[in-house]
Design brief:
5-stranded parallel sheet, 23 strands, alpha/beta, FAD/NAD(P)-binding domain, binds NADPH dihydro-nicotinamide-adenine-dinucleotide phosphate, about 600 residues, about 30% helix
């Protein structure tokens, strides 16, 4: 780690500065400032990686349909394969498996969590990442490896979006319709549709007038830029290129763009935190020394550390494990109850300020031009935005031909013209604009309304959830048999989200296998079990609204208008996984239904 002198902490001054920086960024239009990559902007979401192929609609029946072929869907399918299921169909809008790693192929894309704990099923598939933080393409290929290893390509529907799920009570199965004219049945449906899937654009006045080339980072146009995710973007050599957005994506894409572009303008509204990355190749001796079971042990250890649970040894040390207590402001987990709430809040705030001071000092150490360095300093609490890590991003601003354009005074870019980008009264002529502007939240899957679900008695899922989601453990709902949701819903979260998905996948597979063995007619939680889980969530809830209200705007806090953390299981993922394990040891009588009574049908 790079050394920097700790700055003295003046908490009052820091609080004032944070409030000032937040206030000047709050826009009355909040999340409405963005445009979805749909309708007239639909071409921004078009798949540039796989040519569209025609196929005949499906009208058959399968045992299990898995919607979403990212790591969640792959892990659920792999667990079901291990449990003996042969008839598994994977469906995705993409042209292949990989989810976020299918879509995000921009130059510099890498994993932000150590690959040895992030990339799932390494031992099962005989794989070892080549680097501590693997490249996106390596991770995407690992997703393909998993699909091949578990023979999941046998039955896939890519380039396909499900348009409705309807429970057929007579046949005890789901009828699935899609945008490709399919109408087939499945006994079980698992949805794992991700959260940050739909690219979004800033609603910049005149955006449609720009005559140069534009695209979103999650649909990288290599036909225009040339090169690969490793760089060498020869098509940009004579171009003046603009990047809009400096979140986790911007941080990774900017260094390689700077190497290739004739000139690069980085349009920043709010600076990210940029902490030390410390990537390195995998040490072959270390890899050879690992004993069977090492990955699970490392994943569990990392999860426990981040969840604030006691561990005897720290197997991973990185920027995430260094900021555990600060993550509690956003992510569920155990808190230190040897202190009062007030004492803990003050300790965390001091800790936060020390971390942020160190990060701000790093900007000053690395960036030569004082005005640029000043503009790159983040002024908010550590978890207000997704923490960033890079050993190349800040350095880019010392290169000739790279300019940082600070748009904070105008709350972002003012306008776009035929030839460029306007900030305040200054116009910057550019040939190409790369939107690193992130994703719509909550637009995919059953919660979004884009996939209507009709359960027993013709009841809609969102109708049934009119006052908020109702599930048992986040997986399933009363009235919607044999339907499972994977993702962040009424359960526990962590930075290593793939691990969270793996536990969910294994749980669902175990429940389905048990139901099959027990000859259960369907899997459906009782209304009482569902209610009890909601009570548990309420009783254990920790309110992060105050923290988020003081944060600079971003997608974590609905652009400064609300808290979006919602209901999760506050004691954290380790406690949640323990709870699931104990529940599985029981008789599962609160979800396994052996016969349909008239009363149940009517309830
Ligand atoms: P973000 O939403 O984090 O960032 C969008 C960027 O666009 C912000 O810098 C935002 O500024 C800027 N922006 C938006 N509108 C305007 C405007 N009108 N004018 C100027 N700037 C504007 O998107 P990312 O794609 O960077 O990241 C999304 C998430 O994806 C991450 O938080 C992370 O969870 C995940 N991710 C993970 C990676 C990994 O693990 N390797 C890599 C990349 C992404 P402002 O902050 O002011 O709103």
């Amino acid at each position: 780690m790079e050394e920097s002198q700790p700055a003295p902490i003046d908490l009052e001054a820091i609080r004032e500065r944070y409030a000032y920086e937040r206030d000047r960024r709050i826009r009355p239009d909040g999340a409405r400032q963005y445009r979805s990559a749909a309708g007239e902007f639909g071409y921004y979401a078009k798949d540039p990686y796989t040519p569209f192929t025609e196929r005949e609609p499906k009208t058959d029946g399968v045992d299990v349909l898995v919607i979403g072929a990212g790591f969640g869907g792959l892990l659920a399918s792999a667990s079901l394969r291990d449990a003996g299921f042969e008839s598994i169909r994977l469906m995705d809008e993409a042209g292949d498996v990989g989810g976020t790693w299918y879509w995000n192929r921009y130059p510099g894309v890498r994993c932000d969590v150590e690959s040895y704990v992030y990339m799932p099923l390494l031992e099962e598939t005989g794989a070892m990442p080549t680097e501590r933080y693997a490249k996106g393409e390596e991770i995407r290929r690992h997703a393909v490896r998993i699909a091949e290893h578990y023979d999941l390509y046998r039955d896939t529907l890519f380039q396909t979006r499900s348009t409705s799920l309807t429970w057929d009570e007579g046949q005890s199965e789901w009828i699935i319709e899609t945008d490709r004219g399919d109408r087939f049945s499945a006994r079980y449906v698992i949805t794992s549709t991700g959260t940050l899937t739909q690219p979004k654009l800033p609603g910049i006045p005149g955006i449609e007038r720009f005559r140069g080339h534009t695209f979103h980072t999650s649909r990288w146009d290599y036909a225009y830029t040339g090169g690969t995710a490793d760089g060498n973007l020869t098509g940009l050599a004579d171009k003046r290129v603009a990047v809009i957005g400096t979140g986790a994506t911007g941080l990774q894409a900017v260094p390689l763009l700077a190497e290739s572009a004739g000139e690069l303008l980085v349009f920043q509204r709010t600076p990210s935190t940029v902490d030390v990355r410390d990537n390195r190749p995998t040490d072959p001796e270390w890899a050879a020394s690992l004993k069977p079971g090492w990955q699970r042990e490392r994943m569990e250890n990392f999860l426990a550390v981040l969840a604030g649970e006691p561990v005897s040894e720290l197997l991973v040390t990185d920027g995430w494990t260094a900021t555990v207590a600060l993550q509690r402001n956003i992510i569920s987990g155990a808190v230190d109850d040897s202190l009062s709430d007030e004492e803990r809040a003050l300790r965390d705030e001091l800790d936060d300020a020390a971390t942020m001071n160190r990060i701000r000092a790093r900007v000053e150490e690395v960036v030569a031009d004082p005005a640029t360095a000043e503009a790159l300093k983040p002024w908010y609490r550590y978890m207000c935005k997704r923490p960033g890590f890079s050993d190349h991003y800040l350095q880019v601003f010392n290169r000739p031909g790279v300019t940082l354009v600070d748009t904070s005074d105008t709350q972002g870019i003012t306008a776009m013209t035929e030839g460029g980008i306007v900030v305040g009264d200054k116009e910057f002529a550019v040939d190409c604009v790369v939107f690193a502007t992130g994703f719509d939240t909550g637009v995919s899957g059953v919660m979004s309304g884009t996939l209507p679900v009709t359960g027993r008695d013709g009841r809609g899922l969102l109708e049934s959830w009119a006052t908020g989601p109702r599930t048992l453990h986040g997986f399933y709902s009363h009235g919607f048999p044999n339907l499972f949701h994977l993702g962040a819903l009424q359960n526990a979260n962590s930075v290593n989200f793939v691990h969270i998905l793996q536990e969910q996948a294994e749980h669902v597979a175990a429940v389905v296998a048990r139901a099959e063995r027990a000859g259960a007619q369907r899997i459906e939680p009782t209304a009482e079990a569902e209610e009890q889980w909601l009570c548990t969530l309420r009783e254990t809830a920790r309110d992060t609204t105050a923290f988020q209200a003081e944060c600079t705007p971003g997608y974590y806090n609905g652009e400064g208008t609300r808290s979006i953390t919602g209901f999760s299981y506050s004691p954290g993922p380790v406690a949640f996984h323990r709870l699931l394990r104990e529940w599985r040891e029981g008789d599962m009588s609160d979800v396994l239904v052996h016969e349909t009574t008239a009363a149940e049908v009517a309830s």
